[in-house]
Amino acid sequence: MNKITLTADGSNTLYNESIGEHYHSKHGALQESKHVFIDAGLKHAITSFPGQEINILEVGFGTGLNFLLSADYCQKNQIKLNYTSLEAFPLQIEELESTGYNNYVPQAIWDGVINNYGKALQQAVSILPDQQLKIVHTYLHRYETAQQFDLIYYDAFSVQHQPEMWTDEIIAHVCQFLKPSGIFVTYAITGKLKRALKSIGFSIEKLPGAPGKREMLRATKA
């Protein structure tokens, strides 16, 4: 069961009662997504991989906010977006619609997601020209692909509530899908996570966190 919750910046999130955690920061869902995944992740990756196309792997589609903001940024900057998201427990379409995130992106992007959500859970779909979305309904440890991505958004629930998503083995598993010099970005930062990434050849950056969190992590594959 998920309950709609207002966060401090005026945007909504959902509270997952079975996990015991919100999908986004209670200090601000919109500003957290922008700060961690767009500003520290997407913009940095586009600078690192200059061109007209970006390939993103997301762990945890959730409410779809990270995709909506990514699609908006890429459309405005004429960048082709290929976005694959892993989600073990997809929300119902009514739950996505309840978030009010249509207020933060152009209507065409919102309509593209809402109208194609069910189809995207089955195959890659174009929500707009050059904006492709695929939601893989699976657990992370079962996911396999030959594709190599430029950027990983790691947006699983916290280690306190979902420790199995933060083991050394699962971090190594997902990072194999990054191309050389690929970027891993997440809202979390712990000594254990830093050691896990360093052990598989990543360089680590500690960045200022979104409101309510002192630091966040960005890592680059050797």
Task: Please give a structural write-up.
α1 packs across α2 and α5 packs across α6. The radius of gyration is 16 Å and the shape is globular. The model has no long low-confidence stretch (mean pLDDT 97). The protein is built from six helices and eleven strands. β8, α5 and β9 form a beta-alpha-beta unit. It has 222 residues and is an alpha/beta fold. 31% of the residues lie in helices and 29% in strands. The protein has a single domain, classed as Rossmann fold (3-Layer(aba) Sandwich), CATH 3.40.50. Keywords: Methyltransferase, Transferase. GO terms for molecular function: oxidoreductase activity, acting on the CH-NH group of donors; tRNA (5-methylaminomethyl-2-thiouridylate)(34)-methyltransferase activity. This is tRNA (5-methylaminomethyl-2-thiouridylate)-methyltransferase.
Give the terminus-to-terminus CA distance.
41 Å
Which CATH architecture would you pick? 3-Layer(aba) Sandwich
What percent of residues are in strands? 25-35%
Q: Tell me the structural class.
A: alpha/beta
Sequence-ordered SSE layout with sheet pairings:
Blueprint: E1 2-6, E2 12-16, E3 21-22, H1 29-48, E4 53-59, H2 65-76, E5 80-86, H3 93-98, H4 107-120, E6 125-128, E7 131-136, E8 149-154, H5 168-175, E9 178-186, H6 191-199, E10 202-208, E11 215-221
Parallel strand pairs: 4-5, 4-8, 5-7, 8-9
Antiparallel strand pairs: 1-2, 2-3, 6-7, 9-11, 10-11
Helix pairs in contact: 1-2, 5-6
